[in-house]
Prior knowledge:
The chain is α/β, with parallel strands linked by helices. The protein has eleven helices and 19 strands. The protein has two domains: 3-23 and 260-374, Lyase, Ornithine Decarboxylase, Chain A, domain 1; 91-254, Alpha-Beta Barrel (TIM Barrel), CATH 3.20.20.10. Bound molecules: pyridoxal-5'-phosphate. Pyridoxal-5'-phosphate binds at residues 47, 49-50, 69, 91, 178, 181, 213-216, 253-257. Pathway: Amine and polyamine biosynthesis; putrescine biosynthesis via L-ornithine pathway; putrescine from L-ornithine: step 1/1.
Amino acid sequence: xxxxxxxxxxxxxxxxxxxxxxxxxxxxxxxxxxxxxxxxxxxxxxxxxxxxxxxxxxxxxxxxxxxxxxxxxxxxxxxxxxxxxxxxxxxxxxxxxxxxxxxxxxxxxxxxxxxxxxxxxxxxxxxxxxxxxxxxxxxxxxxxxxxxxxxxxxxxxxxxxxxxxxxxxxxxxxxxxxxxxxxxxxxxxxxxxxxxxxxxxxxxxxxxxxxxxxxxxxxxxxxxxxxxxxxxxxxxxxxxxxxxxxxxxxxxxxxxxxxxxxxxxxxxxxxxxxxxxxxxxxxxxxxxxxxxxxxxxxxxxxxxxxxxxxxxxxxxxxxxxxxxxxxxxxxxxxxxxxxxxxxxxxxxxxxxxxxxxxxxxxxxxxxxxxxxxxxxxxxxxxxxxxx
Length: 387
Ligand SMILES: *Cc1c(COP(=O)(O)O)cnc(C)c1O
């Protein structure tokens, strides 16, 4: 199971793992969560999909997070186990009757909807205490690496119709949107708030609560985004001008920004060739998101020898292949590793706490799911000070 070590070197010396290992850093998770709880002008929900490990949920709880964005029965059960007093928001806009029933019996009262059909489906399986969370789509090009409004979210006319229908059913609707993941421009949140307020005014339905989604960035090697406090400040100002005067409280539901720094991935070099390394993990395992994000998600990394000591020196450019027999199993960017990189060394990729282990498949019988706990931070990549 999960071992706990003061440092990555101590872990490597103790275990010399041949399988990939996700190194969780509860101290860092707690620091990021506390930064959100203290800095965001409203409630912070944790978007469970980016990392549902029990230790992560327990650490969020310790940091003061009590609200959770969930999207499946597994995530609901996990939160119910790890944070029994947690308040859950079922923020998946396309649910089955069985999923709705299970969520309702588990105490979930907030359900995302982005069309009349889903509103009526959920309302028909619940009672007057159900709170519809009506999701508004955000136009493309608002500054995020991933657009999340092509799949979910209602255009303004439908958003307004769903709000009115929900109120007509005697329900108290709330609103949400998601600017897209890895959003590089704080003003995207203001734009979302402006659009939502305009639609809410047009609908004539008063709401008391609005969830402005996730999308806060993590700081990858090539990320050019303002620091998190700049996002909090832009949102606080928009709140003072737009939502507070309308009596609306804010919430956010970050995944990536809360968790990316909370975990790294320890991958072993299984074979070294002159210009290539063959790693024991890749784009079908813990590095899946790298395939989609390409340079935008270029991960900080460091090379450690088989004793866990940092290896430095003049760097060469290496193609990095993953472990499966699939020719596509290759990182989208070369690794500039020291020339003396050797079989049995480890590459530690940082910022893999979000969308790392959760996305891993088991292609070729190769899993990326082992977890170990490390006290020490990954040197040099902290976006907020440890407390
Ligand atoms: C994935 C997701 C999030 C988290 O997004 P990040 O970009 O990781 O912050 C929040 N809300 C919903 C509804 C999501 O699907």
